[in-house]
Amino acid sequence: MRLIQNMCTIAEYPAPGSAAAADCCLGAAGRRLVKIAVVGASGVGKTGHNLFFPLFIGNLYTRQVQIEGETLAIQVQDTPGIQVHENGLSCTEQLNRCIRWADAVVIVFSITDYKSYELTSQLHQHVQQLHLGTRLPVVVVANKADLLHIKQVDPQLGLQLASMLGCSFYEVSVSENDNDVYNAFHVLCKEVSHKQQPSGTPEKRRTSLIPRPKSPNMQDLKRRFKQALSAKVRTVTSV
Questions:
Q1: By the 8 A CB rule, do 104 and 36 touch?
Q2: Which family does it belong to (predicted)?
Q3: 61-91, pLDDT tens digit by residue?
């Protein structure tokens, strides 16, 4: 998985076989887990092989990142390439399970393949349909940015599409620039991290600022009762 494999070159990734790598795979106690699925057409550069990226289960890869001072464990799931037929997308049940499993999705197209670009909006719609009731964080990545001599998709088109879909956009070359790949995953992790924050805390804080009504003093209540009773007695006597 070419896009995924370049994540491992970031210095913060734990060495294979180390305790840190094991923690990342298993989700150490107290460490939040972010699950990301990478989807796209066949041949866009999302798939491949890398011996330095520890394999957890099947095509599930892992690493750790620092997000606003917190260490998060990431699991990145590779998916089979998607085909397009006359009736629309051809999505296997395996692919649908991966998308449902994910907390966020990376949609990849190649600037050398216009059809993979056209697939992006359909894929985004399919992803959101599988997560009805919540808007899943999605990043759009245009890969093979170094192959300008055979490009079929202008970068501006990718940016416009991502903006229309409400997604972040990155143009990368996984064979040349690791930082661009890292940034795309980092943005997703940050979005998921914020989404997972407890929503009740700010509300409780605001509520606590509202002054509570003072409870009536017991002596004051007795005094008022005696006054009302005396007034009633005087009224009856005068009659």
A1: yes
A2: Belongs to the small GTPase superfamily. Ras family.
A3: 777 888 888 888 888 887 877 776 665 676 7
Residues 128-135: contacts with CB within 8 Å, 24+ apart?
Answer: 130/96, 130/99, 130/100, 131/99, 131/100, 135/166
The three-class DSSP label of residue 130 is: coil
Cα-based distances in Å from 239 to 183, 226, 231: 90, 20, 13
Nearest to 60 by CA among 100, 16, 111, 98: 98
Task: Tell me, yes or no, if the pTM score tops 0.90.
Answer: no
Which two structure tokens, joined as six digits, stand for 140? 């759009």
Which tens digits make up the pLDDT trace of 151-172? 899 989 999 999 999 999 999 8
Alpha helices by DSSP H, listed for the chain, are 2-5, 19-26, 93-101, 114-129, 155-165, 178-196, 200-209, 218-238
- Distance between CA atoms of 47 and 63, rounded to whole angstroms? 17
